[in-house]
Design a protein that fits this description.
By secondary structure, the protein is α+β, with helices and mostly antiparallel strands. It has a single domain, classed as Aminopeptidase. Helices cover about 35% and strands about 20% of the residues. It has five helices and six strands, in the order βααβββαβαβα. Strands 1, 2, 3, 4, 5 and 6 form a six-stranded mixed beta sheet that branches. Helix 1 packs across helix 2. The radius of gyration is 20 Å and the shape is globular.
């Protein structure tokens, strides 16, 4: 295997990062048909937030020789509130950021008021992992994950979590190999579909509903 280098993403990586995020979003949509399409323009706005506009995102790139072959994006959270990893980004786009933070502040105040103090422990949210198809199953994702965790060690986070679509078998296999375990499942159904008349899960039997 060629020498692998893991480094932090910068402004000069914007174009390549947009390409990889577009590919990742398309893959997610293919495994989750109900998810809405994401345009390149939306992805470009997201990448701008990751690299410049928001202080919460740690984005690392995997590089072999001159080619960027993957990326990983993480956030650190205290309870449900994101922790600033790059405070120097706070003063950019002041008007938009003021509105953004005001909305976020109100939202989190409501949510935090519903939580116990014990829920304010530090956690790491693994937001995105991507490796281009020709470089998969070669330890690239693990190398990026290990490097990201090393950089976030000072936050003393106890756990790391992520969300993965039920139909994303490739992602599930990857995350299982990286040591993740399923703790919760989200089940969905079409609300226009009629429920079965006699569903054991509803506690129905010979005597009717219980």
């Amino acid at each position: 295997m060629k020498k692998l280098t893991i480094r932090e993403a910068g402004i000069g990586d914007r174009k390549r990062l947009v390409e990889m995020v577009c590919d990742l979003r398309q893959h997610v949509r293919s495994s989750t048909p109900a998810s809405p399409p994401v345009s390149r323009e939306v992805v470009e706005e997201q990448v701008n937030k990751y690299l410049e506009a928001e202080p919460y995102h740690l984005v690392l790139l995997a590089k072999q020789e001159e080619s960027v072959i993957g990326f990983i994006r993480m956030n650190v959270k205290r309870g449900n509130q994101p922790v600033e990893l790059f405070p120097e980004r706070k003063d950019r786009n002041p008007i938009k950021r003021t509105i953004f933070f005001l909305k976020r502040f109100i939202r989190y105040r409501i949510m935090e008021g519903m939580r116990k103090g014990a829920d304010k422990k530090m956690t790491v949210y693994l937001a995105d992992v991507y490796v281009e198809p020709g470089s998969r199953r070669k330890g690239v994702a693990k190398a990026m994950l290990d490097q990201a965790l090393a950089r976030l060690q000072s936050f003393n986070a106890e756990t790391m979590y992520l969300w993965v679509a039920g139909g994303n078998q490739l992602g599930q296999s990857l995350f299982t190999s990286l040591g993740f375990e399923v703790q919760n499942m989200v089940m969905v159904r079409d609300t226009s579909r009629k429920s079965p008349i006699d569903s054991p899960a509803e506690g129905r039997g010979d005597d009717g509903p219980k």
